[in-house]
Amino acid sequence: MNTSKSNGTFLILLAGIFWGSMGIFVRGLTDLAGFTSIQVVSIRLTVAALTFSLILLLKDPKGFRIKMKDIPLFLGLGFGSILFFTTCYFTAIRMMTLSIAAILLYTSPIWVMLLSLCLFHEKMTRNKLLALIISFVGCVLVSGLGSADSNVSLIGILIGLGSGLGYGLYSILGTIALRKYSTYTVTTYTFLTAAVGSLFLCSLPDLWHKITVCPRKPFLSVFIILTGLVTAVIPFLLYTLGLEQVEASRAAILATIEPMVATLIGVVVFHEYMTVLSVIGILCILCAIVLLNCRRPR
To answer: What is the pTM of this model?
Structure first.
């Protein structure tokens, strides 16, 4: 593997690790102020949008200039990817068990690989296909699907699959946007559009009321900022930088390290029980990542 691809792989894996820490912040904000899931999402997106805008303003003010014809592309990244997948994901969680919702979310590498074959004419190699299968099996085992209630409606399944499609679209649309604009421009406009959209879904008066009545406002303020930075700004910057060096389908599979990290955090931080199947699932994901980065001899 060449140096640039190695760096890209490391950045994407690191992004997955940051995303995997999301549970700490979701539970923290819920305990502190009683925020709903969609309100936590809106907080993440808004903090990220403001931070990315400030970074772009300091680093490259000209980066705010985009062509009118590319506005639909950024609307697709903000609304069609980030906001759409988040809304679908949390709706799926309300309609079914968390494990099944997580499995449907992590169909994203399948969507990315299929779309990449059509749009970017990427080659389907044996290693890619095998790594895709192994990583998905690993996600299934980590989530403990076998012990979940399987009474799920067709609409619920479609919404869950929609979360996977929206999640995967970031790799596809992000790859297209990076051909024209810098990483900072792409992430800034993506989160600005997503944040604006989220404000219409989060019951803004109720969100503001919960902030004002919280008895630990200084700590809550710091925690809100950290939520945006650790779960959105840093990982999305890392992932988008990684996309400049790694093709979309490979990046999507590498990002499946996220549920493995989330599982380990659950065990270490929240003392959740990890089954033998979860351990096997973690090993499957690690094997998929290693396999994906192995070059076949000529």
So the answer is: 0.74
